[in-house]
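Lab notebook, design round three. We kept the backbone fixed and only want residue identities now. Task for the bench partner: fill in a sequence for the structure below.
Input structure tokens:
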């Protein structure tokens, strides 16, 4: 760099600032974060703690392996119950959400109804599914019904939001036109709204079903039925660690299969019943 270039850099247009003048709030936050990361990492990797971690890994391998599949039939029955909880709760939630989402759509319902409905959806979505399960176990006792109600309420929050956004993103002139010529509200929905949103509704419902199957595997820990109850029993047994591993492997295999199946179904939905294919 020659002297002329240096002069240009120090010119009034490009003033040379001191290091402390270059600091702003974001830079200070980044520096503090890096310092805390280094400090925390040093503490976590202390010699005695590393030894504890290695001892924990050794304990895990010895206690949890090899997996115990001696009660595979019972595990299979619990997995079947998990599927039943997820399917029933998703089916109920999808149908209720289609109605509730119409009340939550700004281009369909009055603003006062939209605000009340969205507040309800926010509440149901805010509480985790495990909390819903705990509440309904108090009401119904440790039964699969508690799991169905828990996942139904939790699903309403998400599906109601997703469906209302789908309705708001479309033109409802056709539905209004049908109403003006004497169509019933159900006919206006079936012929004016549903053809344009059904691909999104199917895709979002499938996502919710996948989520509920995962959640149904966990809510049993508080007594809401499914494989989670068997997992909880195995964890309480002194010699049940290897059975826990077997249950977790079964859950993992089911989740992987569902992910692959869900991707294939979503691709089919996109190709077969998208709005573009309907218009064609």
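Proposed sequence:
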């Amino acid at each position: 760099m020659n002297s002329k270039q240096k002069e240009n850099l120090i010119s009034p247009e490009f003033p040379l600032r001191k290091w402390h003048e270059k600091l702003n709030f974001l830079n200070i936050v980044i520096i503090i974060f890096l310092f805390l990361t280094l400090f925390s990492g040093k503490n976590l990797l202390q010699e005695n703690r590393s030894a504890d971690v290695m001892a924990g890994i050794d304990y895990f391998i010895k206690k949890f392996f090899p997996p115990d599949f001696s009660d595979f039939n019972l595990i299979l029955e619990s997995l079947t119950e998990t599927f039943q909880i997820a399917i029933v709760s998703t089916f109920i939630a999808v149908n209720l959400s289609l109605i509730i989402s119409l009340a939550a759509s700004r281009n369909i319902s009055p603003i006062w109804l939209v605000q009340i409905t969205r507040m309800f959806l926010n509440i149901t979505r805010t509480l985790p599914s495990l909390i819903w399960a705990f509440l309904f176990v108090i009401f119904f006792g440790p039964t699969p019904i508690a799991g169905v109600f828990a996942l139904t309420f939790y699903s309403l929050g998400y599906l109601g939001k997703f469906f209302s956004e789908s309705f708001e993103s479309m033109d409802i002139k056709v539905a209004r036109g049908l109403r003006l010529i004497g169509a019933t509200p159900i006919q206006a929905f079936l012929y004016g709204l549903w053809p344009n949103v059904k691909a999104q509704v199917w895709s979002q419902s499938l996502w919710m079903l996948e989520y509920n199957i995962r959640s149904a595997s966990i809510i049993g820990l508080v007594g809401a039925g499914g494989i989670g109850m068997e997992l909880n029993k195995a964890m309480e047994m002194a010699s049940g660690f290897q059975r826990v591993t077997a249950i977790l492997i079964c859950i993992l295999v089911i989740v992987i299969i569902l992910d692959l199946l869900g991707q294939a179904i979503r691709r089919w939905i996109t190709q077969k019943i998208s709005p573009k294919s309907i218009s064609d």
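Keep this in mind before ordering anything: The CA atoms of residues 132 and 150 lie 5 Å apart.
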